[in-house]
Design brief:
By secondary structure, the chain is mostly helical. It has three helices and no strands.
């Protein structure tokens, strides 16, 4: 599907940023942060926005590279880094 994406790389990064913002807004509403409680969003809304972030990030990656092994290498590298920091 990424190959069919008409957005430029720059537009995709902006879309990614937009999805992150929407996730932040959903979380603020979910925790009833001042000024955000009127939206009355649930944890399900936060999860849905997280899925959007993941999909846009993957789409952006695949626009840059269609190499599945490269993606797996980057994911493993990052997971290992996170594990080393958390233990």
């Amino acid at each position: 599907m990424s190959a069919q994406e008409k957005k430029t790389l720059e537009q995709m990064v902006l879309k990614f940023s937009e999805e992150v913002r929407e996730t932040s807004q959903a979380m603020l509403s979910y925790v009833n942060a001042s000024g955000s409680e009127y939206k009355q969003l649930s944890i399900s809304d936060v999860k849905e926005e997280c899925a959007d972030v993941v999909l846009v990030a993957l789409s952006l990656f695949y626009k840059l590279s269609s190499n599945e092994e490269e993606l797996q290498e980057f994911l493993n590298k990052k997971v290992n880094k996170w594990e080393s920091v958390m233990t």
